Amino acid sequence: MVKNSKNIISILLVMVLLCQGCGHSADGVTGSGTAVTDVAGTSLTDSIRSDSGTDNSSADNSAENISGTENTGKDSSNTGKTDSEKADTEQPNTDSSNTNSSNTNSSNTDQSNADKSNTDKSDAEQSNTDSSVIEEQNDTTKENNTMTPEISEKDFYIAMISDEIFARMKGKSYKDDCNVPIEDLRYIHILHKNLEGNTLEGEMVCHEIIAQDLLEIFEELYLNNYPIERVELVDNYDADDETSMTANNSSCFNYRCISHTTKISKHGLGIAVDINPLYNPYTKIVDGTRTIEPAAGAPYLDREADFPYKIDENDLCYKLFIEHGFQWGGSWTNSKDYQHFELPDAVADELRAKYK
């Protein structure tokens, strides 16, 4: 009986083993089982699990590897995309900033270039304008140089009376009884044009107070080609007024007193000037008799007639002397001295008082 019981147990064990060999254990069916140990002492469940675990582990590992690879790839892709999107998000801003900066710089550069271009254009136009103005001025200068003579300090100047000049004057225009100090007189050198347009040298002695005025007047007359036939020291004619005037010589200082008086004349003071006297004579009627000086100037008493060297109120010479404070003898009432320009009586009286 006992033997039979052992046999039955053995059979049951074999059946259990057979069932487990087919992979269907009670645990597999019920979901719970008891560990069975084989003869060698190894758990068959562990062995099965080991075999199954190897496959499952491979599968799991494969799945994990695949999943991990995909996840990593996805994450990497997502990360890349995110970074890329971030980069794209920031890059446009950066690009936009760079673009804006570039555009700004470009705009500034363009504006700068435009401004520079405009400035260059403006400068070029200004340069052209300035060049045009300079050319016009040069043309005007050339034209003026063609139309008007050139002058230098050697042509127009004022000097003290040198010993050489005084030697020419002594005993003639500067008489022995002359009480006007030679230091108060000045020698002026000028250029002038005659009626034919020839340039001639001129010289004159005058009082120092009118020397600069005379120099400026004669310069202006010369530049305007105003005709003056002669400008020589009256000493060249032995200080004889009639001879000098007949030669149409323009002069200033010649010491003498007013007729029938002891008053120094304005020519004697060196503050009166005669210009082109032959064509602009002095005239006065005394007791029904007309006096003409120079006598050769009689044909030129008709001031309505047209002739060269004539001085009237429309004449440049007249205008310049008046501008410089002189008075014209052609405006006198009791007599006419068309050649004569002088300073006012007040100045003459002051000088006379000084030289008594």
What does this structure look like?
A 3-stranded antiparallel sheet has the order 1-2-3, covered by helices on one side. With 356 residues, the chain is an alpha+beta fold. Mean pLDDT is 75; it is low at 22-147. Strand 7 (282-286) and strand 8 (289-293) form a beta hairpin. The relative contact order is 0.06. It has 2 domains: 2-96, no CATH class; 157-354, no CATH class. It has helices at residues 2-21, 26-30, 44-147, 163-169, 208-223, 241-246, 266-269, 316-323, 345-354; strands spanning 157-160, 185-193, 199-207, 230-231, 249-250, 272-274, 282-286, 289-293, 327-328, 336-337, 340-342. InterPro entries: Peptidase_M15C (IPR039561), Zn_M74/Hedgehog-like (IPR009045). GO terms for molecular function: carboxypeptidase activity. Residues 1-25 form the signal peptide. It comes from Butyrivibrio fibrisolvens DSM 3071.
Task: Based on the model shown, name its key terms.
single chain; 3-stranded antiparallel sheet; 2 domains; 356 residues; rod-shaped; alpha+beta
Uncertain regions spanning at least 5 consecutive residues: 22-147
H and E string? HHHEHEEHEHEHEEEHEEEH
Our measurement of the CA-to-CA distance between the termini, rounded to an integer number of angstroms, reads: 198 Å
Into which percent range does the helicity of residues fall?
40-55%
